[in-house]
Amino acid sequence: MTRITERLFYRIAKRWIAGYTLQDAMDAARNANERKIYAILNRLGEHTPDRKLIQQYVEEYLKLLETIQTENLQATISVKPSQIGLAAEIPLYGENLLKIIAAAEGEGRFVWIDMENSPYTKSTVEIYRELVGTHKDLGLCLQANMKRTESDLRDLLPRGGKIRLVKGAYPENGEVAFKRRSELNANYLRLMHILFEQNGFFAIGTHDEKMITEAKKLSRDHKADFEFQLLKGIRDDLKSSLLANGFRVSEYIPYGPEWYNYSKRRMRERKRNILLLIRSITG
For the whole model, what pTM was predicted? Predict the structure, then answer.
């Protein structure tokens, strides 16, 4: 990617990311709080086998938690397993995750674990299963496009699992994932019904208004402890509407120089963002 193309693409990517630095993340979190929205901060970067770089990421998450506390923000963090050790070896990931959890628990902060592409799914779920019983403020993202997710959900919920349900942004093959949009949507609805029928905390992570409308209907029939989670810069009008209707809303706010691959996934998800990019290049 040429420097000019990168600058143009970054103009679009800034919709979804806070910027390059930790301070950019703090500014975005403060902006969310001013809109009565809770912030979930993620330092971009994934699939990292380099131990030195892994350590740097872990230290940044610890610094992030410290700064959130110092600046008294309504915020927490979401970590990617392959960023903090899982792409190197499973024990290293477990060790680093426990360090982050301990720091968060010391400050009364919840920690979310992101779900990545299928090579990491099994280990991510297994380690969460091991930890959830002794770490109550720990949540896991599950992806409705994965065929195994209903089984994982039914296994984790009785253990006290706290789930963020998303559709899934990674390209996957038909052996492990639903490829048709109709199948994906049907599975998301099925999983969402399961969440509303149990008693624990969970999050609905989608911008799909049909799914959100169904969640609102389900919330009238179930006394559920849940929130809506939406990405930074996407459907701010919907966030305002949900808040006005009395729902809790969190905003997922990524930051860091590794913004390009993340932004490509966002572009694949939302075709109209490609039109915005073309206008930036030609306008």
Answer: 0.90
